[in-house]
Design a protein that fits this description.
This protein has 99 residues and is mostly helical. It is 87% helix and 0% strand. The chain is flat, with a radius of gyration of 33 Å. The chain starts with a helix and ends with a helix. The model has no long low-confidence stretch (mean pLDDT 86).
Length: 99
């Protein structure tokens, strides 16, 4: 067994050391995770002074997104209208050419 370990080159030793490091890190993380209480795991509630501010920010974001959605729908409708006009003009040109 020792002959096999002594016969390993530097790359193999680096791989073994990395593998051992990963295993030890995973064990340490699991051990630390089991020691945490539920209060440490979750995110605490914001203070009451921030709740109103946060709700107002969320509502402002929602309003802005609704406005952007309306503008995007209008741009899409305009592009669709122009595309239909181009298609209609192309049909007219094809009909004239085929006569």
């Amino acid at each position: 067994m020792l002959d096999m370990l002594n016969g390993l080159d530097e790359v193999a030793w680096a791989g073994l050391a990395g593998f051992l490091g990963v295993i030890l890190t995973a064990i340490g993380a699991a051990w630390r995770g089991t020691k945490k209480t539920p209060v440490e795991v979750g995110v605490p509630l914001p203070p009451p002074s921030l709740v109103d501010f946060t709700l107002e920010e969320a509502r402002a974001i929602r309003r802005r997104l609704e406005d952007e959605a309306k503008a995007s729908a209008e741009r899409h409708d305009e592009a669709e209208r122009l595309l239909n006009a181009i298609h209609q003009d192309t049909q007219i040109l094809r009909d004239r050419r085929d006569r």
